[in-house]
Structure formats: C-alpha cells, structure tokens
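Worked example 4.2. Below are the chains of a multi-component assembly; read each line carefully before continuing.
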Amino acid sequence: MKNSPLESLKRGVKSWEFALLMILFLEFVIFGAKNSKFLNPNILLGSVNDIISICIISLFVTFVMITGGIDIQAGAIVGFTSIIVGVVWQDGGLNIWAACLIAVIAAALCGALSGFFVAYCNVQPMVVTLGGGFLYSGLALLVAKLSATESYKGISGFPDSFRQISQFKLFGVIPEQVIIFAVLTVIAYLLLHKTKYGRKVFLVGVNPRAAEYSGINSRLVIMSTYVLSGISAAIAGIVLTSYLDTAKSDIGATFTLQIITAVVLGGTLSTGGKGNVIGTALAALVIGILRFGLPLCFKINTQYLDIPVGLLLLIVITARSLAGNSKVVRFMNGVMPRGWGKTAAH
Amino acid sequence: MNTVKKILKIREMTSFLFLIALFAGVGMVNSSFLSPTSLLNCFNDSVVFTLLAVGIAFVILTGEIDVSIGAILGLSAAVTSTLLRNGSSWAVAFLAGVMVGVVTGVINGFGVAVLNIPSLIFTLGTMGLFRGMIYVYTGGAWVENLPAPFTMLSKAKLVGDLTAFYAVVLAFVILAHYILTKTRRGKYFIAVGDNAAGATLIGIPTVNTKFVSYVLCGVFSAVAGILYSSRIGFITPTAGNGYEMKAIAACVLGGISLTGGLGSLIGASIGAVIMSSVSRILVFLGFSSDYDNTITGILLIVIVVVDAVSQNRAAVKNRHMRLAARAQSKKGDDQK
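Applying the procedure described above to all two chains together yields the following structure tokens:
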C-alpha cells in the first residue's frame, strides 16, 4: 500500500503519540500562561534533574512490557547502583569511572538474574521483580553498611569530573541530562523499531509460542529485556547520584508508580505485544512536566503530586478501555466524527 | 499412609512445614526463640499483615491484583486516628475507617471488574490517588496523641499471651476460609480465578465476584489500618508504604498462585506470619535488621522459583504419561 504524504499526515494526527504531543503542548500553554517563569529555559531545563530518571528507565521498561512482562524492581536498582558507585569510589578507593562501570555491570546482573527466573523458570514477572525489588534494595542497604559513612547520611563529595555529568550544559543552556535522554531515546527507538532484535521482542510479546516455533530464542529475548531495563536503571542511578552529589541506597524507592504510568500512558499494552518508544518518551515528559509545573504555577505542595499522576493514569486507561469497548465506540461514532476511538482502541 | 499423602498434597501444607522448619532452625541456633511467649509473639505481631494478606488473597484468587492496599491502610488509619484524637466515639471512628475501605474497594472494583482495566495498572493509579488523599486529609502532618484506651487495646490479652486482636483476626480468617471453601458463593472466587471464561459459561457472575473481592480487600485493608494505628500509636503520611508488596509476598509464601484460582486464606495467613517473623528471626540469629529486605527477597524468589520449576516438571511428566498411555492403548488396538 502506498501512502500519499497527506494520508500519512492524517494517520499521524490520529495516532496516540500525536495526542500525547498535544497534551504536552497544552501543559506548556497552561503552565506558561499561569506563570511566565515556567517558560524560562534555565528554569525549565533545570527541572530535568527531577524527571530524568523516570524518563530513562521507562524507555527500557517499555521493552519488558512489550514482551508481556513487568518490571517493578527498577527503582530498587537505582538505589543499588547509586550506593555501589559511592562505596566503590570512597571506601574501595577506585577511580570514579571504574566505580560507575562496576555499578552498571552489577545492575545488568540484577536484571539478568530476574530475567533468568522469568524466562527460564516460567515464574510470573510480577512476582520475580517484586522479590527482586526486596532483594536489591536489601543488598543496597548491606552495601551501604560496608561504607565508613553512616548510611542515612549518604556518601558525598564526588570529584568534579563526575559531577560534570549533571553540571555540564551544551551551549550554556541544554543540560547534559537532556542530551543523555535524547541519545537513549534514539538508541531505544532504533533498537526496538528498526532492528531484528526489536521485531523479535514484539513477536515474543504477541505470541511466545509462535516466536519459539519460528526459530527465535524467545527465552533469551525475554531475559535480555530485563538486562536492558537494569542497565537503564543504572544509568539513571549514576546521573541522579551525580546531580545530588550523594550516593544513597534508597533514592529510587518511589519511582515504580511513575515508571509504569509513563509506559502505559505511552501506549504500551500491559498484556504485551504492542508498544512504542516515542510514546513512552512523550508520556514520561508529560508526567515530568506535570510534576514540575503544578508546584511552580499552581502552588501545589509536592507531597500531593501522586494525585494528579494517579488521576492521569486512571483517566487515560479508563478512556482507552471505553474506546476499546465496541458499544461505546458505536455510540460515540453517532455523536463524534467517524473514526473516533480507532486511534485509542487497540 | 493415605491420609498423610493427602495432607501433604494440600498446598498450604508446604508453607506450614516451611514455617515449622524455619522456627525449628532458628530455635536450634537460639533456643530462647522457642519459648511460648516468643513464638506467640510471632503470631501476635503478624496481625496487620494477616489482615492485609487475607484481604488481597480474595483478589489474587480471582486472578487480579491490588497494589493500592498499603495506601488504603494508611488512609483508613489516618481517618480513624484523626477522628479519635478529636474526641469522636469509637463507633463513629471505626465505622468511618471501614467506610474508607468500602469506598476505595468500590472504586478499584469498578475499574477492574466493570471497566475491565488491567488490575495492576488501575490499582497503581488508585494507589497514587489514595496516597495523595492521605496528604490532603492530614495536611502532611503526623497524627499523634491518640487516646490511651485506644492504643492500650492492642495490648489487651485474651488468654495467656495471645492478644485479643490476633484471636479475633484468626476467628475471622477461619470463618472466611470456611465461607470460601464450603459455600456456593465462596467457591465462585476460586472458580473465576481458575478459568474466568469457563466460570461465565456455567453462569457464575464473574464481574460481580471480582467486584466483591475488591470491596472485601478494601475492608480488610481498612481494618488492618485501624489495628495499625492502635499498635503504632501515631500515623505518618507514609504509613503503610510498601505494605502491598509485603502482603503479596505473604500470599505467595502461603502458596497462593498469582495467576489465580489456587491457594487458600489459611495459606495467606501462614505466609503473613513467615513474612512478619523475618525481622524478629534476624534479631534472634544476631543479625541486624538491615538484612530484612534481602532475606525477604531471597525467600520470595526461592519459594516461587521452586514452586514454578516443580510445577513445570509435573506438567511435563503428566504429558509424557499421557502420551505413553495413548501409545500403549494404540498398540493394544493394533494387536486386536
């Protein structure tokens, strides 16, 4: 089928990613109108530190969810890597970059361990990553005990070269974290949508048995997605440690809700087989901007921010579930322009 | 011999034997753990987790999940404690707490059962919502200075060292277990979890059953919240954070399958005892409580992996036996 540019544009407008883009745009308009400080590039881009971890991790948790799994251990791995960087550098006396490398390898092993149980032992992903969450956050505490510093204080005083990760700004405006996020988005996009590996991830999610019969090592593919999400959690942990200049064992403890929200909001089916990196990236930004804009422009206490994020998730999934319901679609087609609901329904 | 085999085949028996082995193992290292008071305290201390685990067991048995129970616990605890502190009567405060459970349960049940939204996602959303409501309700402050009679309630002893709380909760669990396994409506829960489509075909109200399971789960969590405030004596806005994970872990330890349709409430309460004993056991073994999460995680993973591997083995063995039997009968046919 050949598409004229107009048709593909039409399809693009109807897509879920376009809706997300509109929501993002709307957020900018509303927050900007309310408080002009919001649009100040320094303030806006400075807020990136608070949301960067969610953005990075959700990109790769998308892979896990496309295979039909779920990953609720990523938050624990963030803390685990952070404390490893701190302890290996301060108490182990190693170079900071070697410490980072060790942390990334440790996180990859964590992901591989959980992935192994999911893929090769057929344990439900939810249970494995639940146990993994306990295990890795527990191990993080034990690693923290190895340090001479009291664990509640956190390890700080990192060298400048390491702190540059979160201090450096391209052209004096764009923080390095934004570049990291952009690069990772491109990598994730190419990996998922343009390579053979990505096709395998989708096929395993749609029908694991068919994937197995067509010669795909589906178990290895499933395991690899957990390794990827573990590595992304490690990157997030390192960036966050650099920004806070503190290595603590529990810095990622509250991320789970936001990560899953971003992935689902981005259009990934929680049952697997369908998903999109661009959608996830946009959704993560929508959540991040919401969490940044509400306190700044509407003076909403940061402690209340779980409510709008929770509500956003509830509204989106309810709307999509209604749009997927044939009765509602038929009813709405009578009221709304034709084709309504097709975009949101799977 | 047959009865022994039958008893061993009961799923929660594995968990119970594990519990006994665990206690015996700890007792060998430190015999003071095996004193009646210390053992009973393991059960007494598990009261909040028992309620949470049994509540979520209803939901898990139907094949769904509810990760908002920690927030429901916190919300109910905050509401009850605030009312009590402001001088409301106990009846009003308790009723308000339970109503929190009913309302939150109805919201979850509506989303999952009626709107058919994946339960993990929906309850993740309501978790954020309910947790935020705690902040709104308390203004982010701690609820302290609860009336002394209320906090003393948790220390009330029924017989010997058995607290009244645990006795009542245990009675409830046994009653609920009886209803679930012996009555027609009770059996719906497991039937729906085992095979939802099949259950619908034979006329079981699947949607209703799931809905009811969420309401029950909400109520159990809310009651757990009331007991929590009595035991702890003050409520922070983060009260119950992460308890949902521990309750799910307790269910898994108690032999309940997260795919639904397999397990029992007794199993859930045994799992809750194992779960809440971990930190106590660590103390008796001379470890610091920092090992708490690590041990919990290892326990959880080991148990589910062993369970899954043995189930896979059994499935493969069954298939081989079936194939062998078929081949045998075919041979018999040929000879005729």
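Take a moment to check your reading of the output against the notes. The interface with chain A takes residues 65, 111, 115-118, 120-122, 124-129, 131-133, 135-136, 140, 237, 245, 248-249, 252, 258-259, 288, 290-298, 300-301, 304-305, 308-309, 312 of chain B (CB under 8 Å). The longest helix of chain B spans residues 292-335.
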